[in-house]
Amino acid sequence: MVYVGLAQISSLLIPLVIAVVIGMLFSPFVDRLTRAGLPPFAAASLVLVGLIAITALSIFLAVKGIYDQRDLIAEQFTRGWDMVQAWLAERGLSLDDVDQTVTTVSAGVTSGAGGFVQAGLSSVFSFIVGVLIGVFLLFYVLKDWHVIRDWVANHLGQIPPDLGAGIINDATRAIRSYFAGLAITAAPVAIIIGIAMLILDIPLAFTVILVTFVTSFIPYLGAIISGAFAVLVALGAAGVQEAIIILIVVLVAQNVVQTLMLTKVTSDKLSIHPIVNLGST
Fold first, then answer.
1. Are 140 and 40 spatial neighbours (Cβ–Cβ below 8 Å)?
2. Which of 74, 90, 137, 261 is close enough to 185 for a disulfide, judged by CB 3.0 to 4.6 Å?
3. Is the CB of residue 230 less than 8 Å from the CB of residue 209?
4. Taking Cα atoms as reference points, which of 65, 58, 69 lies closest to residue 235?
5. CA-to-CA distance for 46 and 41, rounded, in angstroms?
6. Percentage of residues in the chain having pLDDT higher than 90
């Protein structure tokens, strides 16, 4: 019953949680602008516009990078498929069987294309609505962070307001410390990947560095997005061998270097043992 209820309100709950976390991280910037003389409304608006601009710039550079390399990427994929066909032919495997399997799968996909398109459009619409709700909520979390914090502290049941405020402040400090550690470790990881691309004479190294750094704040999915982007750029600009090298660099940098650095840095900032930190993340 609880799961069903959460599923029904997920379109509001997820943007709210994301807005609260981002508000925790960036409310100090609003405070600084307010102390500098800006009204809270203007300060929150300025910070929000800055966040949107950074996100939009990262998306634009990533999409533009892939779009500019689209012909080369398609050529590399075609060359790779030709290599697969040659490999199968050398081993006496029938390409007709492969083509028949592809045709059968394609027919099944085509027959259900209407449902896929409808589901896809519904997902896109839900995502857009969720983003708009999240932006709306984030603005007011940034603008009224201290008001919201005090209200929550005064409505924690039997917990006294002073203790409630202390709990919220401790949680806020912990989250800020974690993301500060994430930023500290994301920068060298992004630079490592960028240097590898420069050594291999692959273009868009700066774009890859920016996309890798920004997406590092998105758990799990961000690493997949930035890694796929770097590999696709390498595939289109240099070829399969260079793409494999970049893939190895990405896997080592994100899964070994960043994990070890993040565990060390956040453990020091949060004053917890690295084993506990690694297990919790």
1. no
2. 261
3. no
4. 69
5. 9
6. 22
